[in-house]
Structures are given as structure tokens and as C-alpha cells.
Design goal:
Number of strands: 9
Structural class: alpha/beta
Number of helices: 7
Strand order of the largest sheet: 5-8-7-6-9
CATH topology: Rossmann fold
Largest sheet: 5 strands, mixed, barrel
């Protein structure tokens, strides 16, 4: 099915949502959560009602990244109904932007009222430490395109959505308060996230450039989903786990195992934080 034609794109979204409703007995989540690289542990905190493999959902892409499970988990977290995307899609996998954000748009059709997003990122801010959490308060979209290019899907949102506040101030304040209450204030930061296409990591000169233009962390995801969410009118909270350090003097060749180890170190804190935020919604 062509995602470039609005009627076809909307038909695919509604078909996926209808399948999920049918398989879940009409389960209606109020919060959507996207889990990034090495950060799938939140699912262990969910009182699971239904699990659907992406491969079984009509028109869903399939995750090709080893650390992304490729499952939609429906259930309860902190007393709230949640839909958890355990694995996301990236532009570097060869997917179109419409495919990358397809699951977020389906979550909106299922009824979610806010979106929480996580990712693993390289830390550009020299004050950051390995396994810190960074609450994203703005972003730099350095990807070659975005999910709103092409005919507008008027049923989903306006042609020109405003991006003055892509990350919801109320959710950010709630997350910072939760971090303080959990004793995480010293390891929870705020900053600007830069999204690049990948899959290769950046050169030392590129890291210096990104810091010069205002980025505190860099990764290969999140921004397309946030743009789609704002187009849909969904408030967004996003958090990066700092899995490698990219500031001058701290940069070294990246070993994938080290990234997973840093994500694993931070995952309990991220899980506790997201659970606290969801419980307070």
C-alpha cells in the first residue's frame, strides 16, 4: 500500500488500529510509550493484558535492530492504561518517514492522550556523565526529511503544526519533580537532542559542530515521532539515556557492548521515572 496517497495512508492506519482493537477486546490506552535501544525493561513493570507482535499487525513495519523486540504491549502501569512500543523504527533501516511514525499515529487512533519516548544517545554536553538521563526540552532535526512532507493527512492534524514547544512543559515539570522525589536529581539533566540519519556514528569534527550549534546529546531517532505526535496534538515527554560521551577530551571509539551496558545501568532509573510520571497523570 502506498503511504504517499492520503486515502491509502489513512486506510492503513485505521486497519492497524481496528486489528489491535479486535485482538485486545477494545482495549483503550490513555498513554503511549516508545522504548529505545536497550531500554525494554519497563515492560517488566507493566501488568500485561495483551501482547501483539508487530509482524501480525497490518501494515506495521518490522524492526531490524537487534535490541528492539518488535512487540506492542498493552496493559497497566502505575494505575494507567498504557500501550508500549517495545522497539521502534529508524530512517537508517530504509523505512520512509511515514513508516517510522506509523505506530505513533496508530496509538493516537487507539485513544492515547500523551506520548512518552525514550532513546539512547551520545552525550555532547561536557557536564554529562555516562548513564545520566537527559529530559529533552528541544531538538535539532538534522534528518534529511520529516514525516509531514507530502500531502497533509487532514484527519490527523493541521498542515502547519506549531513547534514552539515540542516537549510539553507540564510533563517536563512532572518528570523533574519525580526525579527529585526518587533521589535522581543528580543524574537527571535537561537539554537539546540532535537527530542525525545514522547508522554510522559521528566524526570528531561532527561532534564539535553539533555542540557548537547547541546540541547536548545526539542520536538517530525520536524527532520524527515527536513531530508526528505534535501534528496529532499529543503532548510529549522524551528522555535520553547517555550511553557514550562525545565531548572533546572524552571521545573514544564506541563499542556497542559498552552502549548496552550504559543503557542497562540507567534503565532502572528510567523505568522508575517513567512509572512515576505515568502514575501522576
Amino acid at each position: 500500500m502506498s503511504f504517499s496517497d492520503p486515502a491509502n495512508a489513512l486506510g492503513a492506519l485505521h486497519a492497524a488500529a481496528a486489528y489491535i482493537r479486535q485482538r485486545s477486546g477494545g482495549f483503550r490506552p490513555d498513554t503511549g510509550i516508545v522504548l529505545g535501544t536497550g531500554l525494554g525493561g519497563l515492560v517488566r513493570e507493566v501488568e500485561i493484558a495483551h501482547v501483539l507482535d508487530y509482524a501480525d499487525i497490518p501494515h506495521f513495519p518490522l524492526s531490524t535492530v537487534e535490541s528492539h523486540a518488535g512487540r506492542l504491549v498493552l496493559g497497566a502501569l502505575g494505575g494507567r492504561r498504557v500501550a508500549v512500543l517495545q522497539g521502534r523504527f529508524h530512517y537508517y533501516e530504509g523505512y520512509s518517514m511515514a513508516q517510522v511514525v506509523f505506530p505513533v499515529r496508530v496509538l493516537k487512533l487507539l485513544g492515547v492522550q500523551q506520548l512518552l519516548v525514550s532513546n539512547a544517545a551520545g552525550g555532547l554536553n561536557p557536564d554529562f556523565r555516562l548513564a545520566d538521563l537527559m529530559l529533552i526540552d528541544d531538538h535539532l532535526n538534522l534528518l534529511p526529511t520529516n514525516p509531514l512532507v507530502g500531502p497533509n493527512l487532514d484527519e490527523l492534524g493541521p498542515r502547519f503544526p506549531d513547534m514552539f514547544a515540542p516537549y510539553d512543559a507540564g510533563l517536563l515539570a512532572r518528570a523533574e519533580a519525580a526525579a527529585g522525589a526518587l533521589g535522581q536529581a543528580g543524574t537527571t539533566r535537561r537539554g537539546v537532542y540532535a537527530a542525525l540519519p545514522g547508522p554510522m556514528l559521528e566524526t570528531p569534527a561532527e561532534y564539535r559542530y553539533l555542540r557548537l550549534i547547541g546540541a547536548d546529546a545526539v542520536g538517530m531517532s525520536t524527532v520524527p515521532e515527536v513531530i508526528a505526535a505534535r501534528h496529532l496534538g499529543l503532548p510529549v515527554l522524551a528522555a535520553s539515556v547517555i550511553t557514550d560521551l562525545c565531548a572533546p577530551g572524552r571521545l573514544k571509539p564506541v563499542v556497542l557492548a559498552d552502549i548496552f551496558a550504559a543503557a542497562a545501568q540507567a534503565e532502572p532509573r528510567l523505568t522508575a521515572l517513567l512509572r512515576a510520571v505515568v502514575a501522576g497523570l
